[in-house]
Amino acid sequence: MAGAATVMEAFQYPFAIALAPALALLVVTLMLVSARRRARRLARMGDAEVVGRLVPPSAKRKPVVRAAALGLSAAFAGIAFAGPQWGIERSIVRSSGADIVLALDASLSMLATDERPSRLARMKQEARRLIAASTGDRFGLIAFAGRSYILTPITADRSALSLFLENLDPSVVGQAGSSLARTIRQGTELLMLSKSGSDRALVIMADGEVFEEQEEVIVAARKANEAGVAIVLVGFGTSAGSTIPVPSEEGSTRKRDENGVVVITRYNEPLMRAVAEAAKGSFIPATATDKASRVRRALATLRRVERSTDTGPNRRPRFQLFVIPALLLAMLDTLLAERRGRRRKAPAAATAAAAALLLTLITTTAGAAPTGEGDRLFRQKKYREAAAAYQAAIRNGDTSAVTLYNFGTALLAAGNADAAVTALERAGTSRDLEVRFRALFNLGLVYLEKGRATQAEAAQQAYASAVESYKRALRVRPASVDAKWNYELANQRKKDQSGGGGGGGGGSGNESEPQPAPSGEKQAPEERPSGALDPRQAEQILNSAAREERDVQGKKQKQNQPNRPPGGKDW
User: Fold this and answer.
1) Number of separate helices (H) and strands (E) present in the chain
2) How far is C-alpha 266 from the chain's CA centre?
3) Which residues of the chain carry a pLDDT beneath 50?
4) Helix (H) or strand (E) run with residue 97 in it
5) Alpha-carbon 281 to chain mean position
6) SS3 label, residue 63
7) Are residues 380 and 363 in the same domain?
8) Smallest Cα–Cα separation from 100: which of 304, 307, 308?
9) Which element (helix H / strand E) includes 487?
């Protein structure tokens, strides 16, 4: 099993390894079949001695050398196609960009179909195009309706942005209506938290149908301009308007107001234009085409700063080591085909020797991996000594996120959970998403152990901290089943402490054990779910994070409900 795992890691397409010998065998077979057919044709021409004087010697010779050369060339080509990769490399991507917050209207009016297929779908399409075209910029997402809600902080993680955009709909915010002033204030506050040094911009995509005082929105826009935030408003919808389809148990119905009249929602261009003028920003009307490109042009004057992004450890591709001998052997076959005299077999022997040397090189390189004193001690399960070694490295100036993570993990394994919190919290803010996920995962383990060791309010606080740690970890790696399992477990125990009940992760309490990330090549924590899962339980765990997020937002809305829109308008 270990050998199979090594092969899977050493090749990008392990299934293609079988292609190499099959391709070599096919080439050799075709060469030999072609040689037999040529020999039969020459035999039909007449006497062998006479024919021998008419054709070059190479025409009668068996193509053993050429078949071997082409077969070996095909084998090397097949291995190169499989994508051999070994050794670790880190890539630094340099780019320049600004900080941009996208405020997206998620009110019921965005379900209107006066833009096809709907205003909401068109808005999400333009937002995706804008993010894709702004390669060096960082984005934050805000969804707003009756209130505004931060979906993501300012980040360069395109996968997280895409995930939240995909799931954006009126249920995300939870409170009906439209409040543009709140959105501008929250977007400005989020941008002011950024210390990158680049210019800041707030891009608002909406239909402009709001039910608050226009002067309140204009005052918020002026304050944003005074704070140095560039504002771009992008309109969606038509002035003629449309009804709002609302899903129901009987099928899609039309939204009605409190008097039972079918609602017609209309694009409010005058308001959006007035807000853009108050903010001294830009306005892109709903009738404009290619809105994403127009937004890019409006933001072209922003001052951008240079950024360096570490893509993390990746296996180094080595296909060129097999492509080069494949080409050389193909060139050798061309030379053999052109020559008419006798051929020596030395080239074939030299090729075999070179192949043996290459295989030795592969084995030696694949086995090499730099290790540190702390990593060695951790593997020997000398956790206290490993923690001391990592601490010594930190004192000597190594304050990298990997070392902090290893230090905190060693302290956790040694039973010193309180001391591990600080190191894991610092590692949990790393720009390296892999290190951040592992640090937050192990930080959740710390709080789970604290919750199990305490009672009453202290245990509830510990479990709440564990829930928050795993929630942050799931934002980095949403597909981690083990993180979701521990998240569900911590959430259920928090509810048990508060007197709640029902549902949840459960399990035997054997959460994942912490593992270090060696300084050369980080290894994932050895995460194991607590017990076997049937399909129903697995589906419940995979959806737990989203369900809990909706519950939290629902509680917050009940505690802090803003005034209802005038006239009871909730779209």
Assistant:
1) 23, 10
2) 37
3) 1-3, 5, 342-371, 500-510, 515, 518-539, 541-542, 545-546, 550, 553-554, 556-564, 566-567
4) strand 85-97
5) 33
6) coil
7) no
8) 304
9) helix 481-497
Q: How many residues does this entry show for the chain?
A: 571
Q: Cα(72)–Cα(75) distance, rounded to whole angstroms?
A: 5
pLDDT at position 533, please? 42
pLDDT at residue 228, rounded to an integer: 92
What distances in angstroms separate CA 50 from CA 46, 55, 280, 339, one per listed residue?
7, 9, 96, 21
pLDDT value at residue 53: 59
Furthest-apart CA atoms within the chain: distance in Å: 109
Contacts of 367 (CB under 8 A, 6+ apart): none
How do strand 138-144 and strand 99-105 relate by DSSP bridges?
Answer: parallel
Q: Is 307 helix (H, G, I), strand (E, B) or coil?
A: strand
Instruction: Judge if 175 and 141 occupy the same domain.
Output: yes
Q: What is the CATH number of the domain that holds 432?
A: 1.25.40.10
Assigned domain for 139 exists:
yes
What's the sign of the alpha-carbon dihedral 250, 252, 258, 262? Answer: negative
**Cross-strand bridge partners of residue 363:** none
Residue 359 burial (CB count, 10 A): 10
Q: Beta-carbon neighbour count of residue 327 at 10 Å?
A: 13
Does 552 fall in a domain? no
**Three-state DSSP string of 140-184:** EEEEECCCEEEEEEEECCHHHHHHHHHCCCHHHHCCCCCCHHHHH
Three-state DSSP string of 194-243:
CCCCCCEEEEEEECCCCCCCHHHHHHHHHHHHHCCEEEEEEECCCCCCEC
Mark whether 55 and 107 lie in a shared domain.
no
For residue 405, what pLDDT is reported? Answer: 86
Strands 251-254 and 200-206: unpaired
pLDDT of residue 59: 60
Report helix, strand or coil for 288. coil
What does the pLDDT read at residue 556?
Answer: 47
524: phi then psi, degrees, rounded to nearest 5: -70, 150
Per-residue pLDDT, 85: 83
The per-residue pLDDT for 223 is 95
According to the model, what pLDDT value does residue 501 have? Answer: 41
Q: Which residue has the tokens 């790393």?
A: 430
Tokens 């030299």 — which residue?
A: 350
- Start-to-end CA span in the chain (Å): 58
Rounded to whole angstroms, how far apart are CA atoms 281 and 277?
Answer: 6
Partnered with residue 282 across adjacent β-strands are 232
Only one residue has tokens 């005082």, namely 213
pLDDT at 367: 30
- Say how many C-beta atoms besides its own lie within 10 A of residue 472's C-beta: 19
Give the separation between CA 79 and CA 14, rounded to whole angstroms. 10
Cis peptide before 117 (omega within 30 of 0): yes
- Backbone φ and ψ for 256, nearest 5 degrees, come out as -120, 150
Q: Are residues 37 and 127 in the same domain?
A: no
Strands (E) in 390-546, as ranges, are none
> What is the SS3 assignment for 362?
helix
- 405, two tokens: 């993570």
Both 436 and 380 in a single domain? Answer: yes
